Amino acid sequence: MLKPLGKNLWFANGGIVSFFGAAYPTRMVVVRLASGRLWIWSPIAPTEALLGAVRSMGEVSHLVSPNKLHYLFLKDWQAKFPAAKTWGTASTIAKCSDIAFSGELGSEPPPEWAGQIDQYHFTNSRFLDEMMFFHRASATAIVADLSQPFSKEFLAGHWPWWLRKVATLSHMQEGWGFPPLDLRLSFRKRASAQRKVQSLINSHPEHVVVAHGEIVRSDGEAYLRRAFTWLDRTW
Ligand SMILES: [Fe+2]
Asked: Which Pfam families is this protein grouped with (predicted)?
């Protein structure tokens, strides 16, 4: 149910959601903070088994949405854990007016997880900003949509042939992990994004956990260097 990836970090795979006709697998991350409290990123559909596993690990204190496409199950988790704080970037808070947020995520981490989880706000696309995270204790980068390393097996089993072709040609596959072409094309002021990626790489991530696609379990640093080479291109 909850699988460990590194010290004080676990992930759980969820069901498949449809996004503009493409099947997207879902994944959430649980970090146990130094206080023992739990920080939950991009919560997936809460089954009783998953809720039981989470409860057995500690008190859920933070529900974190990395971008305005990752909010689907926040309300369900809020109902289960009413004492938890819910966090999102300004665009998510503006879009989800029916969800009560406790705090806005900005360029600096809030005191609740500063020094344990770093955050990098990519505001380059006016269509989709994203907060990327780095959990220091497990040396894990946590990425929602800015890297999408789908396996050949997943694409063959879930995407139609023409969409598979698009994914392959645009490097949305294991080993590359580029995001979709439309997101890349919308990226402006890339030097600022490159500085953030470099800063993340300088933290020496070993693992990269993504919301959609295959988890990178070793040499995340090399993976991220390659996964963001599209920033050097015109598209
Ligand atoms: Fe996503």
From this structure: DUF4336
The boundaries of the domain holding residue 138 are 3-228
Domain assignment of residue 136, yes or no? yes
Phi/psi for 125 (5° steps) reads: -100, 130
235 pLDDT above the threshold of 70: no
CA–centroid distance, residue 6 to ligand 1 (Å): 22
| Cβ within 8 Å of residue 52, ≥6 positions away | none
Write the CATH number for 49. 3.60.15.10
Spatial CA neighbour of 65 closest among 51, 44, 38, 36: 44
Q: What is the DSSP letter of 213?
A: S
Note the pLDDT tens digit of each residue in 125-142: 999 999 999 999 999 999
Measure 205 CA to ligand 1 centroid, in angstroms.
21
183 alpha carbon – ligand 1 mean position (Å): 12
Q: Does residue 233 belong to any structural domain of this protein?
A: no
Q: Encode pLDDT of 33-47 as tens digits.
A: 999 999 999 999 999
Ligand 1 centre from 63 Cα, in Å? Answer: 16
Ligand 1 midpoint to CA 156 (Å): 19
